[in-house]
Structures
1.
Amino acid sequence: MPTSPARGRFITLEGGEGAGKSTQLRRLAETLRASLHTRGVGLVTTREPGGSPGAEEIRGLLVTGETGRWSATTEALLHTAARRDHLERTVWPALEAGTWVLCDRFFDSTMAYQGYGLGLGRELVETLQTAALGGFRPDLTLILDIDVETGLRRAVARHGGEDRYERMDIGFHQRLRDGFLDIARREPDRCAVVDADADPDGVQARIWDAVSSRLGLAQGRES
Ligand SMILES: Nc1ncnc2c1ncn2[C@@H]1O[C@H](COP(=O)(O)OP(=O)(O)O)[C@@H](O)[C@H]1O
Ligand SMILES: [Mg+2]
């Protein structure tokens, strides 16, 4: 785990299917890059599951195939194994070098999907994360919140074969949403809930408000 004082910041984007994480990650990366550039600081964007060659291989096992392909426990272990590799190979080296890292999903997704959605419970998921990551946590987590129907409508309209979770029933997606909100209530200093029910420009502005106020940043282009 990085300990140097000049360490970069680690920001994660979380939320259910179709909340707009990937869309907003691209937009936030652009604004953040401009802001950090003025200080000579770099930014890396990455995603989970994946973000390193080994973790991307594990991703293929997780996001395709039958919905009941894995038990909840096996699924949490696969996500956690992928996460450890991603941290070792991509995230920790970047943070050590002073680069900021912006990540599409992280361990809150394991808690929400496997812990709350698939009924594994908080305790087991927390135990797994502690064993695999130690006390490492994001500096800031943006939780994009949207009603389940709107999110799924957006996700279905988007094409692509990585849809194993999208095909799970509506109750699962509701538990997921409630789970993310519960996570945010438990860790208000780390997590900011962003209402994602607006057009992409509107959501982008809400996200930048949260990031700039919590991390003390100014819009890069102006300076
Ligand atoms: N604010 C928004 N309003 C309407 N559609 C959106 C919005 N944000 C994203 N979309 C569209 O919804 C779909 C899912 O967005 P995406 O960013 O892939 O979500 P996620 O990564 O959270 O699953 C995409 O087709 C995207 O273009
Ligand atoms: Mg996405």
2.
Amino acid sequence: MTTEYAEYPQDLQEAIQFHGHICPGLAIGYRAAKAAQAHLGVERPKDEELVAIVESDGCGVDAIQFLLGCTLGKGNLIYRDYGKQVYILICRQKGRSVRVAAKPGHFRRTPEQEAIFQKVLNGQATKDEEAAFRAFQKKRVDELLAAEESALFNIEEIAPDVPSRARIFKSVTCAFCGEDVMEPRARMRDGKVACIPCSENYNRGW
Ligand SMILES: [Zn+2]
Ligand SMILES: [Zn+2]
């Protein structure tokens, strides 16, 4: 671990290492994870007691995965493609759940900042513009980390809608590519079992 991030709390430093960089998205995910955890009074789970529902697939989700142990592979991370900074944490054991929603405006940029941001994304920024971008991102991260929780989020306890536990499904073999696919994802093509990519090729052009 470089000392570059030594100013941050240990768990955030580790989350940065997991994610690859520090950015406002990771910072808000970090704050959301801490807020949800504190609200429910829970620890990072060993297995599946906690379930997180995330409503965007941005950088913040990596903080949720790292801090709360809710991961795609374990089946206790559910992604809803709503494009919102909303994080729901469910504790099965306690039968409780909390919804942490970012208040509006945390990711707004001025037109000048937006122009630099686009250049950086397209690899067309000058050295000075890159430095300005990094300074702006750093300032925003620091603001997000220092802000009062009530300024960042609307937090409410909601009725837990506990999704069924991750299940293990039987595999069937696609008749077209020869690869296995879990049964509930299998399709039929010409009366034979097909995986989704093979059945989609079939549909193309119809
Ligand atoms: Zn990021
Ligand atoms: Zn196939």
